[in-house]
Amino acid sequence: MAGTVLVTGGSGFLGAALVTKLLRGGWNVRVLDDNSRGRPRRLAAVAKEIEFVQGDVRDADAVDKATRGVDAVAHLAFVNGTEFFYSKPKLVLEVGVKGALNTLEACVRHEVPRYWLMSSSEVYQTPPSVPTDESVPMSIPDPLNPRYSYGGGKLISELLAINYGRERFEQVVVVRPHNVYGPDMGYEHVVPQFIGRVHKLCESSADRHLSLPIKGDGRQTRSFVYVDDFTDGCALAFTEGKHLNVYHVGTTDEVSVAELAHKVAASFGRTATIVPGEAPAGETSRRCPDIGKIE
Asked: Are 157 and 98 within 8 A, CB to CB?
């Protein structure tokens, strides 16, 4: 499989990594991004190999123009970062829902046969079983909690993609990432937040032992996957995945937040005492994917 693929959100953390992966796999790549949260420097190494289109996925005309002549659309444009779920829920939903509708409608108009959607493990909120496979029901437990603006937008995007895909596409594939981390991912996520916090403590004190505040009691778990491993699995799911199927991409190594905090402190040559704090309302206590399907 090869041709030209449009990557929306291509200057974002995941988007830029996927752009590079697709280029190395023989695809021609066009990127649509308004750089409101993306960073053009992430694409600097491949800037001469791609076509970059400045535009907002909420703008139907911009999406339409960017979609002309492509063989696939990889839709990644979304407002990520937990702090934005709480502070800008309307924006999160607006970008999520309009972006999905605009890209799908543009694909239909231009007869683009393949649509690849980047969803999220947030669609499960608190899954009833861990490790969690793709058949576990998606859930929005409380529409009044702004945190669920992100999971809700992803859930709606999945429903739109699958149902448009029944009649209008040769291949629609959904990927649900599980806690991807890596260089230049931004500071709205737990790994870089811990790094920044420990670095600041190290600068202010020569003490080898730190008191490290965290949100919650530290028993919450996540399964982290490095970005290069993620793009390997993601590209496989997008290019080889079956029509109207959902695939988890992640690892099965479940790590507690407290353990992560200790690992970060150790990377600075320090030890730490965890200082528990109030957990955000609606935070999931455990998250670990079953990745048997992508395997």
From this structure: no
> What is the residue type of 202?
C
Contact 140/152 with Cβ under 8 angstroms?
A: yes
CB contact set of 75 (below 8 Å; sequence gap of 6+):
8, 9, 57, 99, 100, 103, 115, 116, 117, 118, 157, 161
Answer whether 221's CB lies under 8 Å from 259's CB. no
Q: What is the mean pLDDT of each run of 10 residues along the chain (295 residues)?
A: 93 97 97 92 97 98 98 96 88 97 98 98 94 97 94 97 97 97 89 93 92 90 97 96 98 95 96 90 89 96
pLDDT at 284: 87
